[in-house]
Every structure is written in structure tokens, then in C-alpha cells.
Design goal:
By secondary structure, the protein is an alpha/beta fold. The chain contains 15 helices and 22 strands. About 40% of the residues lie in helices and about 25% in strands. The strands form six sheets. Strands 14-17-18-13-12-19-20 form a seven-stranded mixed beta sheet, sandwiched between helices. A six-stranded mixed beta sheet has the order 9-8-7-10-11-21, sandwiched between helices. A three-stranded antiparallel beta sheet has the order 5-6-22. The model has no long low-confidence stretch (mean pLDDT about 100). The structure holds NADPH dihydro-nicotinamide-adenine-dinucleotide phosphate and 2-oxoglutaric acid.
Length: about 475
């Protein structure tokens, strides 16, 4: 059994969860400890005890540690990428890319650790000086999803450690292996005990205990809207800081003047790569009438030509869906789109060489924005195609959603590109690019029902992982 890392020790558990590959259910990756409420207690206490010491380390020590993690991830990118592809199902190229991205995140925050700064401000009172500084929040709880099993832990953990916090982390039970490797790397690098604690297990047990724990000061969560909302209520009860990254129903507008190749590539990539299992996936393709016919023809041909299969086979472009329940949910949305009047192309379950959860990418043609299949996040390889008359209608439809994570436009018209960037009600806007696939060093997050609290990633991560102190001094 792979064990939890709590207070610097590897601790087993009474129960273990099987980690099986979604592309081959006979491939048992391993048994992973299923932690308990008591494990959360131990981890939170250990993190609390370790926090003052960790905050007192020099920025250079923390930077060196984060840089060493980056190097370890890079040195093992092939091995970790293969493990990640096996446990989550994204292709080997995507999984290796994600591992490298995790390393880049650690390297970025190694730099940030030595750049923590404040402000000296003139007081309005004579003889008084004012200084604004940043301090760690304390103990942070990180609850991470299955769709980016190493990058999301990395972009929560690296800033947490860089700014002097200690951590209790719970990865998704579907994909604990990548997070476990991260824990092994930190352990092998000799991180002081209690600074980083890994508690694997069920969200309803471990995650729930984390958000309720009095020794955990802040929670950073990525996952579904219902769980995120429930955590926010619980965090408010305990007066904890909280940051939520949740769903999306991200639009790409394709205008008549778009470069057809660029638009088709952006939509295929945004909608279907990583099996559509990205909160930034392009799930609503909003297409102007003049280009609609030729665009749909090219898009449908492209979607049907995508090679679905074993993520470890280098020719595969689309891996399996992550789990049977997610596949069943996707298939129900395919049926729903059909019964709502859309013309469905693809979307059926595929038989692979192995027993896995393979699904052909699905397009819901002739959809409108009122259909449930166009409004609810599916989180699979499914995209609605919605025809519109002009730019204004496209923008209105794009913004007509309870979400607001990422949005995109394909156009060669500078005025429309600029207008879209200005008036899109989303946290991230892409021009001639897929809505998914973001840089690691700039803020990530959305508006409306997609996100809550401060932004993740880049320098903006400091807003969540630090707290500001304003000090006044009278020099006499
Ligand atoms: N924004 C995003 O990137 C993601 C969005 N999603 C959306 O969520 C849907 C369902 O996916 P799912 O994995 O079930 O998402 P969840 O929100 O259930 O899971 C995300 C994380 O939260 C944990 N969790 C679950 N329940 C609780 C709880 N009561 N208290 C604290 N933590 C909890 C999970 O643990 P565990 O899984 O171990 O039980 C996991 O670590 C997807 O179809 C998709 O729409 C999913 C993943 C990522
Ligand atoms: O699009 C990306 O690069 C990141 C997506 C993401 O963070 C997510 O799906 O949770």
C-alpha cells in the first residue's frame, strides 16, 4: 500500500483504494491509503507545529528547495508522465507536458520566494512611518481534482511553500499516484517534518475534515461546483480564507472573417484534447452564419478523424474518459442533446483493444444556448455548435452562461478581437487560440460561478497565500 506522509512519517491506513487505469481496467497501478479524520488531525497538528520554523527559513532556503523539486520533476518527466497517463488517461505527450509544467511552476515560485516584497508608505501623521508587509497565512489545506493530477497540486503547493506556509494536501482518490510521487520527492529532499503532509482518501471524509479543522487556516480547492459551494459555506463558518476553481462552459466565437485552419484547430484542441476534461475546455462553439457551413464540415471531419485509444500509444490523440461514472454522465448528455433537438455527430462509447472508458468526440450541431446540454458543464469530449448572425449576437450568447472562466474568439478583425477582449465576462480571454491551455506564470481564474476568491498562479498567488500586515512606527 502507498502510504500517507504525515508529520514526516509514512503512515498506512486501515483501508486502501485501488488505483486502476481508465484505459485498461486490468491495469492496477497500486493500492493507496485511504486516510481518516484522525489522519487529518495528525497532519494539521504537524503542519501547525512546523509552520513558525518554516516561515523563519530564509527565502533562499525555500527557493533552493522549490528549485530542487523542479529539477527532480524534470529529471523524471518520462517516468512520471507515464504514470500520470496510466492513472488519468491523458495521452503520454499531454502527461509529460503536464509534468514539465509542474516543474516550471516550482521553478517560477522558487524565484518568487526571493522576491517577496512590501511597501514603505508615507504616513499622514508627522514622525510616523508606515510599512506594509506580507506574512504567510499559516496552515493551508489543498484539495485537488483528478484532471491535472500533478500540475494542480504543483500550482497550489509551490506558492504555499514559497510564502512560508505549511500544507495538508488531499489529492483526488481517482489519481493519487502523481501526488504521491510529489510527496516522495519532497520527502527525499529532506523537507522538515510536518511542512508538507499528504492525506489521501475520500473527499467526503478527508476533504470534509480539512475544511472543518480548526488548525487549517485556508483552503484552496479545484473541482466541481456543488462541492466548491459547500466548502465555501463551511469555510465561512470557520472564518477560513478560501479559494475555489470550479467549472466552465467556455465559448469560442468563430466569425466569418476567421482563418478557417486556425479556427478549426482551436476548436478541436479546446473541445477534445485531454478528452475535454479541462475546466477551460471549449464546450460552446458559437459560429457566424457566413462561415458556419464550411466550418462545421471541416470541424466534424476533424473530430471524427481524432485517434481515440491507449494513452501510452504515441499515435493516440484522445485518451479515455477518467472513470465509468464520468463516461456514463457524458453519454447521458449525448442523449440529452439528441432529445433536445441537436444533431449529434459522434459521442458513442468505443471498444478499445483493452477494457477502458473510450468515447468518440461528440459535436452537438444545430444547438441553441438554451438547451441544458449547452448550459451545463459536461467535462467530457462534447461540444455544442451554435449558429449566430453577427458579432453582437455572438458576444451575447458567449456571455449568457452562469460560468465565466475562459472565452475565445477566432477572427482577423482587430476591432472585433479588441471588443471581445473588453466585453467578454470571463477571467481569461483568448484570440485565435483554444480556451484551454494556459501559461504557468500568469493569473488563472474566472468570474461568476467558475471561481471564488483570489486568483491562482503567477505573482497573483501571493494574494491568497499571504496575509498583509500594516505596521506604524513613531520615531519621535
Ligand atoms: N474545475 C475543474 O478543474 C474540475 C471540475 N470537475 C467537475 O466536477 C465533476 C465531478 O468530478 P469530481 O471528481 O467528482 O469532483 P469533486 O468536486 O467531487 O472532486 C474534487 C476534489 O474534491 C474532493 N471532494 C469531494 N467531495 C468533497 C467534500 N464533501 N468535501 C471536501 N472535498 C471533497 C474530491 O475528493 P475525492 O475525489 O477523492 O472523493 C477531490 O479531491 C466533473 O464532472 C466536472 O464537471 C472535476 C474535476 C476538476
Ligand atoms: O487549460 C489549462 O491549461 C488548465 C485547465 C485547468 O486548470 C483545469 O481544467 O482544471
Amino acid at each position: 500500500m502507498k502510504k500517507n506522509l504525515i508529520a514526516g512519517e509514512w503512515l498506512g491506513a486501515a483501508e486502501a483504494a485501488e488505483n486502476r487505469s481508465p484505459s485498461d481496467t486490468s491495469d492496477l497501478i497500486g493500492l493507496y491509503a485511504r486516510g481518516s479524520v484522525e489522519d487529518v488531525d495528525l497532519a494539521a497538528e504537524a503542519a501547525r507545529a512546523a509552520q513558525p520554523g518554516w516561515a523563519a527559513t530564509s527565502p533562499q532556503q525555500r527557493a533552493d528547495l522549490l528549485e530542487a523539486v523542479a529539477q527532480a520533476l524534470l529529471a523524471r518527466a518520462d517516468e512520471i508522465g507515464t504514470l500520470l497517463a496510466r492513472e488519468e488517461g491523458k495521452t503520454l505527450a499531454e502527461a509529460k507536458g503536464e509534468t514539465i509544467r509542474a516543474a516550471q511552476v516550482f521553478r517560477f515560485f522558487a524565484g518568487e520566494a526571493v522576491r517577496i516584497s512590501g511597501e514603505a508608505v508615507s504616513s499622514v501623521r508627522p514622525g510616523v512611518s508606515v510599512e506594509v508587509t506580507r506574512e504567510p497565512v499559516g496552515v493551508v489545506g489543498l484539495i485537488t481534482p483528478w484532471n491535472f493530477p500533478i500540475a494542480i497540486p504543483a500550482w497550489k503547493l509551490a506558492p504555499a511553500l514559497a510564502y512560508g506556509n505549511t500544507v495538508v494536501m488531499k489529492p483526488a482518490e481517482l489519481t493519487p499516484a502523481s501526488a504521491h510521487v510529489l510527496a516522495e520527492i519532497l520527502y527525499d529532499l529532506g523537507l522538515p517534518k510536518g511542512v508538507f503532509n499528504l492525506v489521501m482518501g475520500r473527499g467526503s471524509v478527508v476533504g470534509d475534515a480539512m475544511v472543518k479543522h480548526p488548525q487549517i487556516d485556508a483552503i484552496s480547492f479545484t473541482g466541481s461546483v456543488p462541492v466548491g459551494r459547500a466548502l465555501a459555506v463551511e469555510a465561512a463558518r470557520g472564518m477560513k480564507k478560501i479559494q475555489l476553481e470550479m467549472g466552465g462552459k467556455n465559448p469560442i466565437v468563430v466569425l466569418d472573417d476567421a482563418d478557417l485552419d486556425v479556427a478549426v484547430d482551436a476548436c478541436l484542441n479546446g473541445a477534445f484534447f485531454s478528452t475535454g476534461q479541462r475546466c477551460t475546455a471549449s464546450s460552446r462553439l458559437i459560429v457566424q452564419a457566413g462561415i458556419h457551413g464550411v466550418f462545421v464540415e471541416r470541424l466534424a471531419a476533424g473530430a471524427q478523424a481524432l485517434r481515440v485509444g491507449d494513452p501510452l500509444d504515441p499515435v493516440t490523440q484522445i485518451g479515455p474518459v477518467v472513470s465509468e461514472s464520468q463516461l456514463n454522465s457524458n453519454l447521458a448528455y449525448v442523449e440529452m442533446a439528441c432529445s433536445e433537438g441537436a444533431e449529434v455527430v459522434g459521442g458513442e462509447r468505443l471498444k478499445g483493444a483493452t477494457e477502458g472508458y473510450f468515447q468518440r468526440p461528440a459535436l452537438f450541431l444545430g444547438a441553441n444556448n438554451d438547451m441544458r446540454s449547452s448550459r451545463e458543464e459536461i467535462f467530457g469530449p462534447c461540444a455544442s455548435v451554435i449558429k449566430v448572425g453577427d458579432f453582437e449576437e455572438a458576444l451575447t450568447v458567449a456571455n449568457d452562461t452562469e460560468f465565466g472562466l475562459s472565452s475565445g474568439i477566432c477572427t482577423n478583425n482587430l476591432k472585433h478581437a479588441r471588443e471581445f477582449r473588453r466585453r467578454s465576462a470571463s477571467g481569461m480571454v483568448m484570440v485565435n487560440l483554444p480556451t484551454a491551455g494556459v501559461d504557468y506564470h500568469v493569473p488563472f481564474g474566472g468570474r461568476k460561478g467558475s471561481s471564488y476568491g483570489q486568483r491562482e498562479q503567477g505573482r497573483y498567488a501571493a494574494e491568497f497565500y499571504t496575509t498583509v500586515k500594516t505596521a506604524y512606527e513613531f520615531a519621535g
